[in-house]
Amino acid sequence: MKTVTILGATGSIGTSTLDLIEREPERFRVVALTANCDVERLATAAIRTRAAFAAVADASCLPALREALAGTGIAAGGGPEAVCEAARMPVDWTMGAIVGCAGLSPIMAAIEQGSTVVLANKEPLVSAGDVILAAAARSGATLLPADSEHNAIFQCFDFARPERIRRVILTASGGPFRDFTRDQMAQVTPEQAVAHPNWSMGAKISVDSATLMNKGLELIEAARLFPVAQAQIEIVLHRQSVIHSMVEYVDGSMLAQLGPSDMRVPIAHTLAWPDRMATPMPPLDLVAVGRLDFEAPDADRFPALRLTRAALIAGGAKPAILNAANEVAVAAFLDRRIGFLEIAAIVEDTLAGYDPEDPLTLEAVLGVDAEARRVARERVKDCVH
Ligand code: NDP
Per-block average pLDDT, block size 10, for the chain (385 residues)? Predict the structure, then answer.
């Protein structure tokens, strides 16, 4: 019996994780679930799975959570510290599926336990990669990637011989605007941006997929997770999202992981790892897929690719600034305060306008994140017409 906690249990990844866990009740037992403020979904899931603890990050939602859990014996908590408390409860396996850098402190709390921590939540790894990896090395925690690309690489990567790897190739669907001109992109709405052609995901990552910032964040994520140089990590457009990523060896062999575009496949891999478990998806029908296409990504139309590569090369505080500015800009776009093209422009301006010392601790990263958000919010104000 594996004990599990899901941080961000009410979101797209959290719901997919619960779906898998609830199919095998003899194999998994839920300990804690967290959300921001979706009390109804959180309480329903906590009652269904007989969790011991449920926490909302937004403390103003705690009274409603207490009411929803009254008489169930499930303890309720509220505020960011309660989410960290959930992350600290001893379990075998934790899913980090909070959106954004809000997941950083809870992930650190989970890592301190020294068990298995699964990272869907990529933003903390981008902003605080060194801090997270050092904490995992100290506690002995195992970090597993749930992001489909990194999970694919993990499955193909020979960790015993990283020097025999020539390239790691991240595949990108290209998002909903892959064939749009810059003029067309200037007019797009949040509704168009969140309508991803291949994947069903939360709003923030859907917008990131449309700007290709998601692929850029994944580039940084890959550089954190796998022992290869940044120049060895390439991005290729692959519209069908059937190959989830590839690893090429020095002898010319290229290993790829293929599967349906459903996050339950990589999540199941991390849930059962190093074993395997069945998932409910129908097998991939290769004849129906028919063909696999590849194209070079266009960094002129999608400047996020250039910005993320530059932030990765510069290192220090740059990835944290990039991520914080992007979170602010995406939220402003979803609120219709700025246009789609202004997302990357705000990220670029924030990176240019703020140059702190390298953050070496969790507190320092959180400080850089907070200040970068302040600078980015100023840029958003300048953009609002
Ligand atoms: P969703 O927006 O669907 O869900 C986000 C979850 O985080 C919800 O449970 C939400 O609670 C909770 N949350 C939001 N804000 C806070 C906060 N301030 N503090 C604590 N919890 C909070 O996101 P996704 O599931 O799509 O994505 C989650 C993470 O996984 C992201 O980092 C994303 O990049 C990554 N990822 C997602 C993929 C996908 O297919 N969706 C694929 C690969 C990676 P509430 O419901 O109450 O708001």
Answer: 98 98 97 98 98 98 98 98 98 98 98 97 98 98 98 98 98 97 97 88 96 98 98 98 98 98 97 97 95 96 98 98 98 97 98 97 98 98 81
- Rounded to two decimals, what is the model's pTM? 0.97
124 lines ligand 1 (CB under 6 A): no
Q: Whose CA is nearest to atom 22 of ligand 1?
A: 36
Structural domain boundaries enclosing 219: 148-260+283-299
| Secondary structure (3-state) at 260 | coil
Task: Indicate whether 293 and 154 sit together in one domain.
Answer: yes
Residues 10 and 125 occupy one common structural domain = yes
Distance from residue 202's CA to the centre of ligand 1 (Å): 6
Does any ligand 1 atom lie closer than 6 A to the CB of residue 11? yes
Determine whether the shortest distance from the Cβ of 133 to ligand 1 is under 6 A.
no
Ligand 1 nearest-atom number relative to CA 83: 20
| CATH code for the domain of 84 | 3.40.50.720
- Cβ(119) to ligand 1 under 6 A? no
Q: Is the CB of 331 under 6 A from ligand 1?
A: no
- Which residues have C-beta within 8 Å of that of residue 172, sequence separation ≥ 6? 212, 215, 235, 236, 237, 238, 297
Same domain, 49 and 140: yes
Residue whose CA is closest, atom 9 of ligand 1? 8
**In this structure, is residue 338 part of a structural domain?**
yes
- Long-range contacts formed by 161-165: CB under 8 A, 24+ apart: 162/226, 162/227, 162/228, 164/249, 164/250, 164/251, 165/228, 165/232, 165/247, 165/248, 165/249, 165/250
